[in-house]
Design goal:
alpha+beta; Thiol Ester Dehydrase, Chain A; five-stranded antiparallel β-sheet; two-stranded parallel sheet; 7 strands
């Protein structure tokens, strides 16, 4: 068996306030702002797991569950839940806390896939991940289904790109 690491070894927690320029016309946090922050924490988890430079390969799922409002802080939690040869799937949970009442809610979840790169910017092997907690084991088991889904999605996307190129829809 090759090198292994625990999910907890890649865990990242980051909390921040949201400010008026972070909100849309509905007075809720911009989804794009949230995605940018998710990508940042996920990239740290990927780098901690692989100890390599990493790039975002895909954002497989983002679920905006609850709006984030001006009176709330935001906490991001991310960690590697599955690994391929050079790829890592990172799970991100976003919590919002009302700073006046202390009420917490899960505002969003997401799955990002990162690829570890060597010095020549080529994919490089990453350590396998070992889940320990019940949440980690659950996410790890479900990741097998998501890996199959990603494979199907890649085939589908290649077909679309080929069609668009052949029909001169893309340059």
């Amino acid at each position: 068996m090759g090198e292994t690491k625990y999910c907890k070894d890649s865990r990242v927690l980051r909390s921040s306030r949201v400010f008026p320029n972070d909100f849309n016309n509905h007075n809720t946090l911009f989804g794009g702002r949230l995605l940018s922050d998710m990508d940042q924490v996920a990239s740290i988890s990927a780098a901690k797991h692989s100890r390599r430079e990493c790039v975002t390969a895909s954002v497989d799922t983002v679920e905006f569950l609850q709006p984030i409002r001006p009176e709330e802080s935001v906490t991001f939690e991310s960690f590697v839940i599955w690994t391929g040869t050079s790829s890592m799937e990172i799970f991100i949970k976003v919590y919002a806390e009302n700073l006046r009442t202390g009420e917490h809610k899960i505002a969003a979840i997401a799955y990002f896939t990162f690829i570890a790169l060597d010095e020549n910017r080529k994919p490089v092997k990453v350590p396998q991940v070992i889940p320990e907690t019940s949440e980690e084991r659950y996410l790890f088991e479900k990741s097998k289904q998501r890996a199959l889904f990603r494979e199907d999605k890649q085939i589908h996307n290649k077909e679309i790109i080929l069609y668009l190129r052949e029909n001169h829809v893309m340059s």
